[in-house]
Amino acid sequence: MGLTVAVLALAGCTHYAPKPVSVADTAAGFSSRTADLNAAASACRTMATRAPCDASHPDRLVLFEVLLANNSAVAAARAKVASAEAAARAAHAPVGPTMTLSTEYAGADPKPWLLGLATDFPLDTGGRRTARIGSADLAVTAARYDLADAIWTARMALVRSMADQAVADRQAIVASRLHALQERRFAVLERRVAQGEASRAELERTRVDLADASSRLAAAQAKREAATVQIAAALGVPLDQARKLIASWPGLEAPALLAAFAPADRYSALLGRPDLLKGMTAYEQSEFDLRGEVAKQYPALSVGPGFTWDHGLVKIPFNVGLALPPLDLNRRAIAAAEARRSEAAAQLEALYAGAVAGIDQAMAEAAAARRSLTQARELDLPIATRLAAQADRELAAGAIDRNDWAAAQAGLEVARLAELDALARVLAADAALEEVLRRPLTGPETLIEGAGA
């Protein structure tokens, strides 16, 4: 009978199945990834029924769906959640018993054999079991917060890189016009110097302007390439796939007005931050750890029924085992657990204070960035536009030459570049504000059902 039970138990065991991985296979799988915009648009329509979700003109929400499907950090966070859930299920399983077989042979005895079987069943109840299961369940909660944080981090990287790419495209166009104007000025002055009609010092100043225009153009092109690399990393696709994407961002050049946040809005935003929620989970974990240490000051019970064939006599022993606590009744471990709980509370308070300060700082920078953009658009750019228009009229009247006209036009392009720099600052400030609030403020992401909850 015992042999039958053992065979059945072995038959029900799970067998190891190797699943090797290699860097070569990983590289091949990554290189074959594609941004499936049609599938992303379909998922987008499910997530946000009022959003455009156009695969031919993918916006941030459609690309966000591509990110969810391909981003490696998000996939790793999902795997961590699955691992924590499996560990939590395992934590609910009772502690397994032990079994000891013993034998003895006495040659002078008419019945020389002694056969014994002893078992030990730990009583998996009380504080120890509660602490183990509670810790495992909290690990699942923490892993889910990590997943939310990974998704948000990847989303913010995508938003920032898309903003950088869009601004860099515009900067490259303006910088190209500026470079052409400065090249024209330099060519004109170079001829005049050769004819003795202009000084070499004036030519060198124009050379500096040309070098500055070349630097601005190269910086815009480099910024666009760097943004494309970041988009590829956020979407989890090869770089050549990201280069083929033509993303849309309606309203990019008209940032929304900064709304004031009521105390209730700020409070609700802070409550939704995954890092603060994870800090709360860490505190709850310290509570379970303390509970487990308190339970260890009491003996752990186990029962051990057995069977003995004692030289012809059948005996049924029954044992009660006690795993005694440390000699100090676990007081030192309890004190250490209490200290860790106090540390977790202090860390949670520090996280909250840092989040509040971050919101205030982000709000101040967003307001300052908008003031800078307003000044560029309402003061600096109109002045440069009037000067360029005046130069057009004076050139037509023969009052100035081509060199002076090109200088005025170059000033207009420089003002336009300054406006784009101010716009880039606003977009960066808005992204920083979204980062600390952990919620989208503008764009198609706000159409996600439940996004503002």
Present the secondary structure layout.
Layout: H1 2-11, H2 23-31, H3 37-47, H4 60-70, H5 72-91, E1 98-105, E2 113-122, H6 127-195, H7 200-235, H8 239-244, H9 263-271, H10 274-295, E3 300-310, E4 313-315, E5 318-323, H11 331-397, H12 402-437
Helix pairs in contact: 3-4, 4-6, 5-6, 6-7, 6-10, 6-12, 10-11, 11-12
Q: Notable features of this structure?
A:
about 450 residues, Outer membrane efflux proteins (OEP), 5 strands, 12 helices
Architecture overview:
With 453 residues, the chain is of the alpha+beta class. It has one domain (46-445): Outer membrane efflux proteins (OEP) (Up-down Bundle), CATH 1.20.1600.10. The chain is 68% helix and 8% strand. It has 12 helices and 5 strands. It has helices at 2-11, 23-31, 37-47, 60-70, 72-91, 127-195, 200-235, 239-244, 263-271, 274-295, 331-397, 402-437, and strands at residues 98-105, 113-122, 300-310, 313-315, 318-323. Strands 1, 2, 3, 4 and 5 form a 5-stranded antiparallel β-sheet that branches. Helix 4 (60-70) packs across helix 6, helix 6 runs antiparallel to helix 7 (200-235) and helix 10 (274-295) runs antiparallel to helix 11. It is elongated.
